[in-house]
Amino acid sequence: MDFDYPTELRFKCIECGKCCGDTTEKTRHILLLRKEAEKIAEAIQQPVSMFAVAIADKAPYTFELRKTVKDGKCVFLVDNRYSIYVLRPLICRFYPFELKPNEAKRHTFSYTDDCSGVNRGEQLDEAFFRKLFQLACDKLGEPEKR
Ligand code: SF4
User: Fold this and answer.
1) How far is the CA of 42 from the centre of ligand 1 (A)?
2) Mean pLDDT, to the nearest integer, of 24-53?
3) DSSP 141
4) CA atoms lying within 13 Å on the CB side of residue 85
5) Is the minimum distance from the CB of 116 to ligand 1 under 6 angstroms?
6) DSSP symbol at 109
7) Residue 146's pLDDT is what?
8) Which residue(s) pair with 3 in the sheet?
9) Which of 26, 82, 95 for mutating ligand 1's site (highest number of atoms within 8 Å of CB)?
10) What is the Å distance from ligand 1's center to 96 Cα?
11) What tens digit of pLDDT does each residue of 89-100 get?
């Protein structure tokens, strides 16, 4: 595997729900792969249109999760927990991290400080990022090298 990752970074999700919808500072777009949307639809026995809207120009993502009118949070968020946790999309499994190709023909993990779990908990090691990298490969295919 060919990636760089932030060393000496601690992270532990505190289930604050901040990344699961809009905040006063940010409008959140929770994107879904077609396969993810179809699996959720099958699991809850509802059409995709009940919980997501089709989107263009965000490939490989084809849907965006709907949010509640009441508080702008993901429709699957219940008491700050994802009600269909095992089916949570790649984008949610990845947050607060992002993986991008770099000049050295590798891939780099970056993260956002917006997440309340950054700098909490245990220091993350290569195994943590390897798991995330593998997850991305499984869902999206092997990332291209530049
Ligand atoms: S913002 Fe960070 S700490 Fe809060 S729910 Fe999302 S991942 Fe967890």
Assistant:
1) 27
2) 95
3) -
4) 5
5) yes
6) E
7) 42
8) 107
9) 95
10) 7
11) 999 999 999 999
Do residues 4 and 102 touch, judged by C-beta distance below 8 A? yes
Which ligand 1 atom is the nearest neighbour of the CA of 16?
Answer: 4
In short, whether 21's Cβ falls inside 6 Å of ligand 1 is: no
User: In terms of C-beta density within 10 A (0-12 exposed, 13-18 middle, 19 or more buried), how is residue 77 classed?
Assistant: middle
Cβ(14)–Cβ(120) below 8 Å: yes
Task: For residue 125, give Cα distances in angstroms to 33, 112, 122, 129.
Answer: 28, 18, 9, 7
* H-helix or E-strand spanning residue 91: helix 90-94
Q: Using CA atoms, how far apart are residues 92 and 104, in angstroms rounded to an integer?
A: 27
The one-letter amino acid code at 110 reads S
Per-residue pLDDT of 104-146, as tens digits, reads: 778 999 999 999 999 999 999 999 999 999 999 999 876 554 4
Terminal Cα-to-Cα distance of the chain (whole angstroms): 15
Q: How many CB atoms lie within 10 A of CB 111?
A: 18
